[in-house]
Amino acid sequence: MNWPQCVVDWLVMRLYWGPFQLIKLIEWIACIVGVPLRRRREPTQVEGWRVIKLMQRGLLPVLALPKIDLRYGNGIKRLYVAEFEGGVELTVVFWDEDRPNPLLSILYDMFRAVLFARIEDVETFHITCDEVGNPSFIEFHGTYSGKAPYYARLPQHCSRAVPFEDFPLLQSCTSDSVSDEQNMPVVWVNTWNHAFGESNNNPQAAKRLRARVTFSITIQ
Fold it and tell me: What are residue 112's phi and psi, to 5 degrees?
């Protein structure tokens, strides 16, 4: 192990994330004393036959988010699912998109508020099916992370159609019957700007698997 390089990497990470974590600490203290600076409503649990049908077909993925993103209030607000003949379009709405540098993050929020009239982050990808209706590819158009880690300063907006079998599968039981267990693809959120991938680019960071639909979902 290259100890000098490890020490340098540790110091760079602390200096890089330090100001951002300080802002979040102030927000946490404000919440403790009863003056929350930002509010995040608890997501609504949604179950239904259309959701179960999507799970049975492998068209509703499990989204794996870093705990740091959830802790800083950037979790999932809503998932929109639009079915079409060859698969589904999934649009994920995150509460926010915070840059690691707090000053740049504030400016970035102001820019998005003016340009898009919102601070939520909206990312879309597609699951396409073969001729018999089985998932074949998950397509990312400008939302693919590549090999970028969560703390990458300028993560690229990559595009790629990833074979469905490249994604790990997670069993989720839609009822009390073992026969109703479904294998759902795990899509990893790998970067702070919520780019997706088929593998975990941050094995050292804790992830939170959303095995069930624990956020508001709209199916069109």
Answer: -70, -35
Q: Which of 37, 49, 58, 60 is nearest to 214 (CA)?
A: 60
Contacting residues for 84 by C-beta, under 8 A, at least 6 apart: none
Please give the angle made by the CA atoms of 155, 156 and 161, to the nearest 5 degrees: 125
Return the axis-axis angle of helices 102-116 and 3-32, rounded to nearest 10°: 60
d(CA 24, CA 71): 9
Helix (H) and strand (E) counts in the chain: 4, 11
Residue pLDDT, tens place only, 112-162: 777 777 788 999 999 999 999 899 999 999 999 999 998 888 888 999 999
Give the Cα separation of 59 and 129 in Å (integer): 9
Q: If 0-12 CB within 10 Å is exposed, 13-18 middle and 19+ buried, where does residue 151 land?
A: middle
> Per-residue pLDDT averaged across 98-119, rounded?
78
> Terminal CA-to-CA distance of the chain, rounded, Å?
52
d(CA 77, CA 219): 15
Q: Is-contact 150 205, C-beta < 8 A?
A: yes
For 61-87, how does the pLDDT look when each residue is reduced to its tens digit (9 = 90+)? 988 888 888 877 888 888 899 998 899
Output the DSSP codes for 89-133.
EEEEEES----SSHHHHHHHHHHHHHHHS---EEEEEEEEE-TTS
Element (H, E) at 44: none
Identify the three-state secondary structure at position 135.
Answer: strand
Residues in the chain: 220
